[in-house]
Amino acid sequence: QYKKVDMSIITRLMQIVGEKNVLTKDEEKESYSHDETLDLRRYMPEIVLKPNNRNQVRDILILANKERIPITPRGGGTGLSGGAVPLYGGILLSLERMNKILELDKENMMAVLEPGVTNGELQRQVEKYELFYPVNPASLDSCTIGGNVAESAGGANAVKYGITKNYVCGLEAVLPTGKTLRAGGKILKNATNSQFIDILLGSEGTLAVITEITMKLVPLPRVKVDLIVPFDDLGGLCGCALKIINNRLLPTTIELMDRLTIKTCGEFLQKELPFSDAKAHLWIGLDGNKKEEVASMYQSMGEICLDKGALDVFVAEDKPNRDRIWQARQSIHEALVHFNPKMVGNDIVVPRSKVLSLIKGIDSLSRKHSVSFAKFGHLGDGNIHVYILQK
Q1: What's the distance, CA 211 to chain centroid?
Q2: In order of start, what are the domains of the chain with their CATH numbers?
Q3: Using CA atoms, how far apart are residues 101 and 83, in angstroms rounded to an integer?
Q4: How much is the pLDDT for 117?
């Protein structure tokens, strides 16, 4: 049985984090009562705390554990699975003030940071050292690295570079008892205590509060190119993605957007997207260090696309055009929510070879029940987002 947060507990919590970092009014707490999960109702925390160091986190956990008060850790609140939602009330522990990059080690290509650093900020800072953090969720400017670890987040670059778990080399976390555990560090091989890291990856804040993360980085690619490839035949589109990978061409990104998604993004951004009347788009990203090698890759990919029935191949080599493409990709969720606030989101993973069967099944349901579905996502790793648009 959980205990309620009473005035005596609030006073003790204020002594830990300072009065200005304690929120108790409903209007202050409202934005912490939900994440971006569309079909989950709001759960108001009894109190919101904003610690700014490990010791404050430890003291909060010790107090809450002793008094049997539930705690929900929170990063940027951009998740789609309810991981940051305080289902049982209690304490909402926002790590937004723990937002410092503690060390950038160019020699070892590592970053040591607090959990509240946003994904986008980490990317911008490491690029100054000609380094690259490849994991890029669509919410990268709002989501935090701590949240990415807790959700084991992925992104469009997963085809070539993998997901968050492939870059976590070390973690520091505080258990509910207040004990601090550390595992790993600025090392690439660790066969002795990596299990602690593996347990926390994807645990959604249920086991411990992450207070420090050591992330592996990679060299920054000198050349980046994106392709938009429109299709009117989904069989050709899906077959194209499989053939590109099977031909030993390794793009960073292979994304799918159906017509409904394309048009919704264009309307939301008030911009006409290329080939918006096509049945679907295949978006391909690739990178490298030599312009000639990247050009050879995208020419080979373009030939495969045309052979599979592509209507055209649009090549974006300059930054303005690439930014335009990525702005549309990163706005998909926001655009669909804007025009369909009651929609239901689904995150489905199948083998790459089964994506076409998945889409055909969804289209069959759409016709049978007269319901619209928006389909988009990471075709390259079989992860498709399917949004049910309620009338």
Answers
A1: 19
A2: 7-94 (3.30.43.10), 101-219 (3.30.465.10), 223-389 (3.40.462.10)
A3: 24
A4: 99
